[in-house]
Every structure is written in C-alpha cells, then in structure tokens.
C-alpha cells in the first residue's frame, strides 16, 4: 500500500492549486470534505470513455474530496469550472489520518471504482489488488474488505446515480457555504452526460 495525501501531489500537471477542507459532522455525513481549486496546469488531462474524451484536470477545474471518518473509501468528484461532474473516482482505502501540516491522507488499497456521468460504474485496478495479496503486501482481511467496500458502494450510492448526486450536492454546499446561491438546475441531461452543477 502507499500513502496518498488529499492535496493530490502525485498529479504533476497541476502547477498552481488551492485546497480548503474541513470536517463535517451531520446527520448526513461524518468525515472530511475538501475542495481543490486547480488554477493552472501544464497540460490538461483527458480520459477516454466510450466514444467520448472526458477532461478531468484543467485550468479552473474543481475536485471535491469526500472521505468518511469510519469507512474504507475516499471519493474524488472531478468537476469542471462550472461544477459539472466529469467523473467520480473512488479509492478503496485501508486507513486514514492527518499529516503534521494538516493535510488528510489515506493508505490506498489498490482497488478503485470509476463512476461516469451516465451512471456507469467501472472497476479499476483489480489486478493490482490481486497482485498485492499474492505478494503479501496486504492481508486476506484487507483484500476482502476492499472488495466488500466496493460492492457496498455499488449497491448503495451507485445503484441510484441521482441519489449519489444529491449526496455530493450536500457536501459541496457544506464546503462552499452556498445554501442560498442560485446555481443552474441540477441533473439536466444532455446526451449521455449529466449536467450536475448543484442547485
């Protein structure tokens, strides 16, 4: 396993960025919520999906981090400058903490889910999870927990994509204090993609 900080330092294309984050303790969520504002990149980052090219990192983009306190996953919601979701990336994790400089971190447990704006969920890096077990990098308990966590997310959040969007909406409002801000209407469909800029 390897340590990941929610400042996303491994994304070397980010030249200038600003992170803000805090802990939410409400009836809806208990854990860390952060918003990364990507101010300048050396090169935009694009992912392929079906016949589309999805930009996930570019000037003005926003990444929302959602990491529950007592669970084993961390969500990164990658949004453009208008807060439209491009893709959501979910890391299965083993443990989490806070560095001395106040930046939260987690230990990545290899398995990931990628959730596209049409609701399709793709399992990613299962081969890395299997290899980590074979090499003794993780225990059978950690291996099983990663799989169980991914399946739980499939059966809860991602069975109803609109419900997931409402959950993300709540976390975004919390970190930005935009309860009274009038934003474009949520969940307007255009083609195969959702417009999700959080009312």
In short:
The protein is an alpha+beta fold. The protein has one domain (2-177): FomD barrel-like fold (Beta Barrel). The chain has helices spanning 126-134, 140-155, 161-176, and strands at 2-5, 14-25, 30-41, 45-49, 52-57, 62-68, 73-79, 85-98, 104-115, 121-124, 188-190, 193-195.
What does this structure look like?
The chain is of the alpha+beta class and 199 residues long. It has one domain (2-177): FomD barrel-like fold, CATH 2.40.380. It is 21% helix and 45% strand. It contains three helices and twelve strands, in the order ββββββββββαααββ. The protein has helices at residues 126-134, 140-155, 161-176; strands at 2-5, 14-25, 30-41, 45-49, 52-57, 62-68, 73-79, 85-98, 104-115, 121-124, 188-190, 193-195. Strands 1, 2, 3, 6, 7, 8, 9 and 10 form an eight-stranded antiparallel beta sheet that branches. A two-stranded antiparallel ribbon has the order 4-5. The termini are far apart. Residues 180-199 have low confidence and may be disordered. Pfam families: DUF402 (PF04167). This is DUF402 domain-containing protein. It comes from Butyrivibrio proteoclasticus (strain ATCC 51982 / DSM 14932 / B316) (Clostridium proteoclasticum). Residues 27-158 form the DUF402 domain.
């Amino acid at each position: 396993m390897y340590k990941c900080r929610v400042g996303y330092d491994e994304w070397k294309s980010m030249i200038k960025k600003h992170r803000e984050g805090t802990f939410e303790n409400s009836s809806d969520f208990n854990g860390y919520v952060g918003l990364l504002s990507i101010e300048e990149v050396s090169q935009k980052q694009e992912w392929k999906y079906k016949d589309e090219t999805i930009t996930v990192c570019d000037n003005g983009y926003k990444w929302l981090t959602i990491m529950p306190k007592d669970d084993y996953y961390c969500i990164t919601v990658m949004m453009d400058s208008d807060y439209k979701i491009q893709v959501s990336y979910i890391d299965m994790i083993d443990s989490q903490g806070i560095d001395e400089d106040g930046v939260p971190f987690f230990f990545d447990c290899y398995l990931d889910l990628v959730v596209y704006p049409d609701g399709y969920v793709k399992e990613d890096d299962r081969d890395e999870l299997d290899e980590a077990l074979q090499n003794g990098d993780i225990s059978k308990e950690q291996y099983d927990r990663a799989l169980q966590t991914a399946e739980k997310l499939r059966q809860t959040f991602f069975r109803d994509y609109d419900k997931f969007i409402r959950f993300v909406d709540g976390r975004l409002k919390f970190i930005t204090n935009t309860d009274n801000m009038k934003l474009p209407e949520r969940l307007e469909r255009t083609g195969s993609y959702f417009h999700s800029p959080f009312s």
